[in-house]
Amino acid sequence: MKKGTKCRVISDDYGFFKPGEIVIALETNDVPYCAKESAYSPGKALSSYGLSEFSALSERELEVIEE
Length: 67
What we know:
Helix content: under 10%
Mean pLDDT: 95
Low-confidence stretches: none
Oligomer: single chain
């Protein structure tokens, strides 16, 4: 998954995100950290997000909306 990709959550094994929630990939990775769309800001460093604003999701848990 490419950094900045907008996705819909299909499922979350850890229950952090709800199915249907929109998230943005914060890094290029097979299991990227993703931020809630409401918290996302382009150029913002991963370390600047609060613990309640992001979590890791695997590609199988995400449906790409916009790359």
